[in-house]
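Exercise 7. Given the encoded structure of a 786-residue chain, write a plausible sequence.
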């Protein structure tokens, strides 16, 4: 046997993504690739109006079309007690409308046919008599006393308010403001945007009439939760429900909620005894499925003249659409928005949050962010940037002066989080060094002297991910814990089954690397399975960068459990006591005698062939992880832009991103995640908007109106890392999937505002389009001359 330990490509290695082999060959297996014998196709009729009473629905003409097998309405669903379903935020949502439609695009009826085109064509023959009602398109209007009540289906619902929620300490914050020399405030709107995964949502529901077995292939980021919700909603026994999420073409939070299409297709399969496929088109996805953001925010920052931050006050009004369906931990009505104190050492802070129903699609999903952290991060970083102008301080210096210091961790924030670890000064100093901040300031001065509009913006964010500890974190009562099951085969190859669900993040590669690091089995010898509730351990799924902090931790733990047993077997094989063994790389060896060794493969074989008397054979285990705390990735982004004063167009000159997600399992995948997030952040800052006209018609329901950044307009990113391990995570990793979208919009906008701040411009709401910039510049100049 070789005495040299082999180099194992565990955490820290840039292992190529194993999943890409099938993706680049066009061999992925998406829901729409699934074709079952006898399969029917479903299409959904959606409301053209945002708010209207339904007087009647006539389906007779549609039902008569050759090839149509059934037409389903809310009344039919009601006969089976399925016209309404619970949302993930303890509200109810119409599956198919019975009484009223409450947003444009709402599901009204469904046609099931032998052919998808017949199903779609037949929709046009369904006659619905609508009686239009006033459409409410802003939460401000929704809360006016004379606004019509959107949710008149709910007993005791008097107006359109959904919740009122507070965090922090009002009294202490008022006191801090009393001591302030300067108070800086901002009103800003983080507009509605959409995750827009390339693959839209859909399912194939297959209920076997003979056995009652329900197999539902579904675009879900959280298949286990969906199984439980389905059992509760439909009354089907949970062991007979199998949810399979095959390859997903992106999710970004959009594929967390339960959509009516899933429920109707399942009910139709149950009633018709045949598999039913439903795949939505692009406009259906953009107009009716989980949107993100839509927060109207007010922030006030209290400071001393020298720049010391004293207190923070924020209030927000959330536009939740017609059904409160935010996919977020139950306890926190506005998600984790109270991370709004960011990276700064505030003695006091107070957050007030209100939510309102409007005639828009529901959602509020964690679109490339932990729950509502993008909004929080944006608000604090816009405020801090404006405070620098108010105090005539350098924005970097103002931040450095107020950052929580590395020696203050674990740090209890004024709104109730305990940050695990951080080195904010380290991240910002690296970003400043990499962009050459001093040089850039000189360049800016020269550019300005020539009349150019040149801006430098920055944002230092603290993300909060890995929900979460069972005491505070649940969705519909289900604690937000995750699992991993690991089985080592006799030849030393392994299969890892995880509770989270990959949508392109590369879990099949990185989770294998975690096992590799713990057990010394090369990642290519470990198959990673996910997305099949019959064959993976329970867990709450993948969103909000929680996979690595939860299921990733469970993976390390189960591997360690197996290593403990492997040690006993190795001791037996080497005829020494366990205490005499050390583990390194891929093998156990006798302390001081490295040539007396057994590899993990030797041990795995022995686990089935030559194990000690009295030991249970086999080498496998399962672990569930209940994190003791969340993890808090962080970073600093610095952006330089030039604004064209004649057109308002702005162009990114430099973009430097420093991210810290603790130990990087696969630095290449992490960089990919950050590039993706920075691109999405740029899209949000520069061009993306789902909006509505006064009648509640959705503007932005196709890719001509809702703009995704392409390689043409996306800036070049320069990415760097610092590494501050999480002290409680088994391998010191923090999540990263969402950080860049959380942190970067403020950096882009701050850069544009910096270019214009000498004109007195302090805010332009996203998306910061050239026309808005041009308007702001014209208005400022008119003000100057007028
Ligand atoms: O929940 P989600 O997978 O979207 O987010 P994540 O846990 O932050 O992970 C995103 C991807 O980056 C996964 O493939 C992770 O395993 C990988 N990652 C990593 O390699 N190192 C980290 N410290 C964090 C994430």
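Solution.
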């Amino acid at each position: 046997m070789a005495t040299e330990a082999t180099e194992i490509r565990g955490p820290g290695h840039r292992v190529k993504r194993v999943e890409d082999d099938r993706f680049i060959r066009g061999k992925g297996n998406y829901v729409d690739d699934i074709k079952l014998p006898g399969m029917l196709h479903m299409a959904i009729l959606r409301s053209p109006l945002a708010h209207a009473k339904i007087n009647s629905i006539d389906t007779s003409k549609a039902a008569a079309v050759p090839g149509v097998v059934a037409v389903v309405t809310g009344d039919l669903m009601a006969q089976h007690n399925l016209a309404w379903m619970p949302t993930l935020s303890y509200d109810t949502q119409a599956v198919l409308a019975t009484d009223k439609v409450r947003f444009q695009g709402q599901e009204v009826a469904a046609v099931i046919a032998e052919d998808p085109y017949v199903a779609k064509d037949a929709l046009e023959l369904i006659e619905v008599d609508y009686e239009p009602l006033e459409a409410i398109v802003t939460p401000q209007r929704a809360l006016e006393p004379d606004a019509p009540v959107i949710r008149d289906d709910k007993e005791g619902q008097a107006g359109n308010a959904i919740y009122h929620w507070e965090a922090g300490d009002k009294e202490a914050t008022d006191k801090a403001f009393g001591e302030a020399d300067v108070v800086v405030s901002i009103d800003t709107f983080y507009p509605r945007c959409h995750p827009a995964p390339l693959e839209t949502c859909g399912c194939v529901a297959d209920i076997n009439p003979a056995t009652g077995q329900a197999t539902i292939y579904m675009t879900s980021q959280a298949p286990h939760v969906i199984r439980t919700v389905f059992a509760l909603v439909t009354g089907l026994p949970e062991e007979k429900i199998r949810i399979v999420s095959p390859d997903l073409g992106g999710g970004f939070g959009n594929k967390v909620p339960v959509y009516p299409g899933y429920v109707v297709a399942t009910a139709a399969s149950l009633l018709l005894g045949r598999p039913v496929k439903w795949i939505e088109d692009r406009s259906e996805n953009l107009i009716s499925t989980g949107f993100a953001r839509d927060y109207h925010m007010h922030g006030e920052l209290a400071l001393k003249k020298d720049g010391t931050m004293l207190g923070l006050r924020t209030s927000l009004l959330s536009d939740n659409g017609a059904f409160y369906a935010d996919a977020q931990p139950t306890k926190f009505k506005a998600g984790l928005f109270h991370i709004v104190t960011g990276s700064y050492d505030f003695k006091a802070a107070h957050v007030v949050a209100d939510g309102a129903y409007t005639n828009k699609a529901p959602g509020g999903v964690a679109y490339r962010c932990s729950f509502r952290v993008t909004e929080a991060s944006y608000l604090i970083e816009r405020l801090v940037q404006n405070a620098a102008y108010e105090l005539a301080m350098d924005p970097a210096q103002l931040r450095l002066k107020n950052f929580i210091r590395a020696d203050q961790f674990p740090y209890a924030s004024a709104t109730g989080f305990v940050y695990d670890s951080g080195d904010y000064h380290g991240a910002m100093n690296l970003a400043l060094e990499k962009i050459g901040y001093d040089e850039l300031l000189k360049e800016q001065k020269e550019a300005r002297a020539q009349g150019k509009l040149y801006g430098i913006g920055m944002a230092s964010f603290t993300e909060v991910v890995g929900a979460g500890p069972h005491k505070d974190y649940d969705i519909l009562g289900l604690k937000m814990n995750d699992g991993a099951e690991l089985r080592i085969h006799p030849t030393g190859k392994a299969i890892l089954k995880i509770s989270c669900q990959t949508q392109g993040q590369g879990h099949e590669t990185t989770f294998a690397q975690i096992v590799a690091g713990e057990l010394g089995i090369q990642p290519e010898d470990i198959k990673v399975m996910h997305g099949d509730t019959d064959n993976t351990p329970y867990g709450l799924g993948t969103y909000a960068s929680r996979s690595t902090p939860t299921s990733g931790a469970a993976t390390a733990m189960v591997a360690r459990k197996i290593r403990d047993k492997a040690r006993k077997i190795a001791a037996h094989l080497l005829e020494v006591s366990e205490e005499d063994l050390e583990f390194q790389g891929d093998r156990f060896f006798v302390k001081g005698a490295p040539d007396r060794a057994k590899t993990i493969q030797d041990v795995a074989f022995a686990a089935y062939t030559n194990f000690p008397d009295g030991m249970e054979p086999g080498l496998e285990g399962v672990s569930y992880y209940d994190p003791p705390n969340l993890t808090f990735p962080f970073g600093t982004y610095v952006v330089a832009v030039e604004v064209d004063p004649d057109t308002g167009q702005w162009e990114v000159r430099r973009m430097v991103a420093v991210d810290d997600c603790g130990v990087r399992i696969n630095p290449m995948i992490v960089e990919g995640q950050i590039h993706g997030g920075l691109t999405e952040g740029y899209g949000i800052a520069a061009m993306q908007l789902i909006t509505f006209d006064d009648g509640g018609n959705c503007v932005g329901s196709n890719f001509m109106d809702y703009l995704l950044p392409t390689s043409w307009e996306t800036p070049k990113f320069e990415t760097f890392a610092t590494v501050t391990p999480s002290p409680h995570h088994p391998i010191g990793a923090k999540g990263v999937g969402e950080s860049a979208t959380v942190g970067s919009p403020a950096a882009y906008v701050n850069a544009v505002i910096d270019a214009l701040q000498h004109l007195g411009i302090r805010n332009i709401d996203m998306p910061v389009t050239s026309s808005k910039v041009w308007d702001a510049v014209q208005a400022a100049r008119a003000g100057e001359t007028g």
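Remark. The CA atoms of residues 338 and 415 lie 6 Å apart. Students should compare their own answers with the one above.
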